[in-house]
Amino acid sequence: MKHKLIKRVLMCQPLFFNSLNYVINPWMKPGTITTKKALTEWKQLVKTYEQQGITVEVINQQKNNPDMVFATDQGIVRDKKVILSRFWHDERKGETVHYEKWFRKKGYTILYLPNDIYCEGNGDTFLWRDKLLIGLGYRADKKTSHALGKLLDREVISLEITDPKFYHLDVGLFPLNNETIFYYPPAFSQKSRGVLKKIVPNLIEFTREEAYGFCANSVVTDHHVIHQKGTPTFQTKLKQLGYASIEVEAGEFMKSGGGIHCLTNILEETT
Ligand code: ARG
């Protein structure tokens, strides 16, 4: 089996993360975040990527945009083109202009979604095999599926998310490779579980502990999975599949409902 190798990612340095003062998903705990702690965790994640030979591009956080740290939500990047996100909640709309500037400065072609289409980048989408998997229900809807299918010229598999704790697809589902996907069944409608069973050769269930421990919010490069600390059962499953587990602490970001994958926008990878 061929394995993807990540070459370059975009991350946002948390400088004002503690300014978080709203709740738009059930994990969020405004008033409990320490920017210094977040920065320490973030730097460790950067170091982990660099040890894997990944180049980390950095955008600095802007004041009053606490969730700007979640770089993956900002756009779907492919071949120096980016489909710029449109956030569902007003609280996050101000982030886009800063990323738009960054992508433009770096020479990316920016593709804009029509005005009534919402999409939160790789928070809700995965390019998997020749398909696009998308999570619908909290931050994207059927119109998003349609628009992205056209823009990317791909078959779109729409998965209905039914539990607000799993508001983004990358909180309840983790594609490990072309054969294997991990998912947390209670996050999805009966119908969507059926769809996954049909299309995924090796579909593995997360336990409740793994799902609530943010295991879905992992990043895989080659035979290494970088994931949230504290879920030994996930480590065992990965080892059985031939993957090395690299644990990183991202607990400060979980206080906003985000984790390792949310912090990481993959700009370039080999397939
Ligand atoms: N507080 C942010 C929100 O609710 C967290 C986003 C995390 N990103 C992700 N890809 N799950 O939008």
Give the CATH class: Alpha Beta
Q: Unreliable stretches, pLDDT < 50, 5 or more residues?
A: none
How many distinct helices?
A: 9
For the biggest β-sheet, the strand order reads 2-1-15
* The CATH topology: L-arginine/glycine Amidinotransferase, Chain A
List keywords for this structure.
single chain, 271 residues, alpha/beta, L-arginine/glycine Amidinotransferase, Chain A, 3-stranded mixed beta sheet, 15 strands, globular, binds arginine
Structure description:
There is one protein chain. The protein is of the alpha/beta class. It has a single domain, classed as L-arginine/glycine Amidinotransferase, Chain A (5-stranded Propeller), CATH 3.75.10. 27% of the residues lie in helices and 27% in strands. The chain contains 9 helices and 15 strands. The strands form 5 sheets. The chain has a 3-stranded mixed sheet, with helices on one face. It starts with a strand and ends with a strand. Arginine binds next to helix 5.
